[in-house]
Each structure stands twice: as structure tokens, then as C-alpha cells.
Design a protein that fits this description.
- The structure is a single chain.
- By secondary structure, the chain is mainly beta.
- The protein has two domains: 2-91, predicted glycosyltransferase like domains (Thrombin, subunit H); 100-193, predicted glycosyltransferase like domains (Thrombin, subunit H, Beta Barrel).
- It has two helices and 14 strands, in the order αββββββββββββββα.
- It starts with a helix and ends with a helix.
- The relative contact order is 0.14.
Length: 197
């Protein structure tokens, strides 16, 4: 039983995907708490759900993925609480674990122009963030982050850069890490595996 608890603990602050069963619509959020019987999700989407709405839930951790059906117990501002209705199935992850990051900012150097951004999530090989303005997909940029583990500098490729809303100047950016030094690599791994990031 301790193994199950350890697995669930590793899912804190990890991206969770939900598929609403009646219409197969997808949603996502971040795991705040998970037990054998319940999961609490940080959710900031606009949709409101009826009590007992059925979902299929997928949580991709670093070493395992947790898959299970669940039903909505409650929805409050920013949170969903779901009851897990069948035993959790653990499998190999289907994608890299992404951990939510709060309070970390960095600088992107694009051909001598420095652009500040806020980091929203990280994985073993990349990160997501928010910035003002747009950087073309495929651009190679230099990245600098000041973390609790020390400075991390890396070259990165812009995988996407999309406007948050049609009225917003803010864009969501995804960066794939291409190259970093040995010390930065160790710091990055610590940061990407930090459960309380």
C-alpha cells in the first residue's frame, strides 16, 4: 500500500487531463491532492459542470501514469473535486510529466533582444511560459532562469507561441531545451522533479 501512496505523492502539481464522458470534450488542470478515492484539481477553465458529471482522468507522472474514471463531487472557484469510481490503473507515461511552477520568471534572449517571461510549467526537456509579444515558432533562443537551485542557462527552440486570447498581448510559449551545461542539467533535473515547485 505504501507504493500506491508514493505514486500518488509524485503526482502533486502535475498536469492532469480530463475527458468528459458524455461528449468526449477535453479539459486540463493541475493535481492538488490525490488519494485512492479522490482527486482535487486546480482548474481555471470557464466551463461549469453538473454534479456527478463523469470523466476519464489521465495523470502523467515522471515514472508512471495514473488512469481512472471519476465523477464530480464539487466545483468551486479554481478547483474541481472528483470521486475516483474504479481502481486506479498505473501504466507507463504517455507523455512527459509537466509540473506547475509558481513565482519563477526568466529572460529569453532573441538575437540580442531580452524578453522577460513567467514560467508556468516545466518537464524534463522543456517548459511553458507567458510573455508579452510573439516569438516565431522554430526560433532558437537563449534562456536564463534564476531558480532556488542556482542559475540555469540553456539554448532552446520555440515549439509554439500563441496569443492567450484574441484581445490579449500576452502569449503562451513552449520551449524545448536543446543544450545546457553539465551543472545546469543537474539543476534542471532537480527543478523538474521538485514536488513543491
Amino acid at each position: 500500500m505504501a507504493e500506491v501512496g508514493d505514486r500518488q505523492e509524485s503526482y502533486l502539481n502535475v498536469r492532469v487531463r480530463l475527458q468528459r464522458l458524455p461528449d468526449a470534450k477535453f479539459y486540463s488542470g493541475w493535481v492538488r491532492m490525490m488519494s485512492d478515492s479522490e482527486i482535487v484539481i486546480d482548474y481555471h477553465g470557464h466551463d461549469r459542470f453538473e454534479p456527478n458529471t463523469q470523466f476519464f482522468v489521465s495523470v502523467n507522472g515522471v515514472e508512471t501514469a495514473a488512469l481512472f474514471p471519476a465523477e464530480l463531487i464539487s466545483q468551486s472557484t479554481g478547483f474541481l473535486t472528483l470521486r475516483i469510481t474504479k481502481e486506479i490503473k498505473y501504466t507507463a507515461p504517455r507523455e512527459e510529466a509537466r509540473r506547475q511552477i509558481v513565482g519563477l520568471s526568466g529572460v529569453i534572449d532573441l538575437e540580442g533582444t531580452e524578453i522577460e517571461f513567467s514560467v508556468t510549467d516545466i518537464s524534463a526537456r522543456g517548459l511553458g511560459g507567458v510573455l508579452e509579444g510573439n516569438i516565431p515558432r522554430g526560433s532558437i533562443v537563449n534562456l536564463a532562469l534564476e531558480t532556488q537551485f542556482g542559475t540555469i542557462k540553456a539554448s532552446s527552440e520555440v515549439r509554439y507561441c500563441r496569443r492567450e486570447t484574441t484581445e490579449s498581448v500576452k502569449h503562451r510559449i513552449g520551449l524545448k531545451i536543446l543544450n545546457m551545461g553539465r551543472i545546469e542539467t543537474a539543476r534542471w533535473l532537480r527543478l523538474s522533479e521538485d514536488k513543491v515547485a
